[in-house]
Every structure is written in structure tokens, then in C-alpha cells.
């Protein structure tokens, strides 16, 4: 936003949409007004369900996203008639392998009761970083996830002990 605002002022009447409340708050901080944001569930599917995004014929849309992000939102907006531009403005990266020995020791001592994972990519990265021994502990440890997509990644990695929040379970 700082780079955009350095080149031009915020266009009056520009409608913005955000997947979550935090992003909506930041857009408002930079001058966005009446930001479109889903209530209750914060993902592309919930954003696409909003009435404001149903008829997109002839509307120009820019999606700011991470490198290699999901295609669902863009593909569906194009299908609905939007003239779409994708801007990849950040890169997700796997942490360089670090010393996970403390984590492994905590698992062995029974000091880890559960883990919270906030994205499928985080789940994959954690699985890779802890190695074969840690993967066995990870599969036995309850994992709290916030979306069915993350639960699916956990299932694919062999975890059968994951929990979706009640709100997410109702939405899925």
C-alpha cells in the first residue's frame, strides 16, 4: 500500500474486498471505505458468496496475493465477467531447517498437548522440518486447524487427530 500510495492518491469510490477482518482493517487504515468482508468464515469461498461479487461483468479487479496462491478467487471472478489482474506481492517461504531438538524433547517429555496450524503450507512445512521422528509425534498430537483445507493437508500427512473450530465445521 505504501508503494501504491507513493505513486497516486487513493481513488475515491474504489471498492475493496478482503478475505478477513485484519486485512479489511488495514485497507481502511490506508483509505479504503466500506470494505467488503465476509462474516463468520474467512476464505475465498466466503468472499465469493457475498452479493457484491456475484455480477462482475465489466468490472476491473486487482487481486494482491502471495506467490503461488490459490487460483479459485481469480478464476471464479473471471468466470463472472471480471477483467482481472493478479499482483503477487509477497513470497511464502519454507523456514530454513533449524534446530528442532527442543521441540522433539518437549514431545518426548509430554510437554506438548496440542498444536495450532494456521495454513496448509504451515502444516507441510512443520511436517518437513521435524523429520521422521518428529513426524511420528506430530501424527499423535492433536492439531487445531481453522479451515477444512488445512484439515485435508493434515489428513494427507497422516494426522487423524485434528479439530476444526465449531464455526468452521458448520461452514464446511
Could you characterize what this model shows?
The chain has helices spanning 2-7, 21-29, 44-48, 72-79, 101-108, 120-129, 131-140, 148-156, 166-171, and strands at residues 60-66, 83-90, 115-117, 143-145, 162-163. Strand 1 (60-66), helix 4 and strand 2 (83-90) form a beta-alpha-beta unit. It is built from nine helices and five strands, in the order H-H-H-E-H-E-H-E-H-H-E-H-E-H.
Q: Keywords, please?
A:
172 residues, alpha/beta, 9 helices, 41% helix, elongated
Q: Which SSEs are present, and which pair or pack?
A:
Elements: H1 2-7, H2 21-29, H3 44-48, E1 60-66, H4 72-79, E2 83-90, H5 101-108, E3 115-117, H6 120-129, H7 131-140, E4 143-145, H8 148-156, E5 162-163, H9 166-171
Parallel strand pairs: 1-2, 3-4, 4-5
Mean residue pLDDT: 85
Rg (CA only)? 19 Å
Proportion of residues in extended strands: 5-15%
Helix content: 40-55%
> Low-confidence runs (pLDDT<50, min 5 residues)?
166-172
Question: Regarding quaternary structure, how should these chains be classified?
Answer: single chain
Order of SSEs: HHHEHEHEHHEHEH
Number of strands: 5
Query: How many helical elements?
Result: 9
Amino- and carboxy-terminal Cα gap: 33 Å
What would you call the structural class?
Answer: alpha/beta
Large-scale geometry:
elongated
**Main sheet makeup:** 3 strands, parallel
Identify the strand order in the major beta sheet: 3-4-5
